[in-house]
């Protein structure tokens, strides 16, 4: 069964990423990052842009030490 859903990539304030069906309301605390497409296209985008899995607050705290 092929997934014909169009997805969008979401990002939160901690710069963590998630896929979300494009026809669903974006949940609180998340915002679209602009990428829409198939699940695989969105996963490829996330793999490209989310290179450091640590939350932003942890990266900032570690950089300050």
UniProtKB/TrEMBL annotation:
<protein>
    <submittedName>
        <fullName>Antibiotic synthesis protein MbtH</fullName>
    </submittedName>
</protein>
<feature type="domain" description="MbtH-like">
    <location>
        <begin position="1"/>
        <end position="48"/>
    </location>
</feature>
<dbReference type="InterPro" id="IPR037407">
    <property type="entry name" value="MLP_fam"/>
</dbReference>
<dbReference type="GO" id="GO:0019290">
    <property type="term" value="P:siderophore biosynthetic process"/>
</dbReference>
<dbReference type="InterPro" id="IPR038020">
    <property type="entry name" value="MbtH-like_sf"/>
</dbReference>
<dbReference type="GO" id="GO:0005829">
    <property type="term" value="C:cytosol"/>
</dbReference>
<dbReference type="Pfam" id="PF03621">
    <property type="entry name" value="MbtH"/>
</dbReference>
<dbReference type="InterPro" id="IPR005153">
    <property type="entry name" value="MbtH-like_dom"/>
</dbReference>
């Amino acid at each position: 069964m092929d997934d014909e859903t169009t997805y969008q990539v979401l990002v939160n304030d901690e710069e963590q990423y998630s896929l979300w069906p494009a026809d669903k309301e974006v949940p609180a605390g998340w915002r679209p990052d602009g990428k829409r497409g198939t699940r695989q296209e969105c996963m490829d985008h996330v793999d490209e842009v989310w290179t450091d899995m640590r939350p932003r607050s942890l990266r900032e705290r570690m950089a300050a030490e």
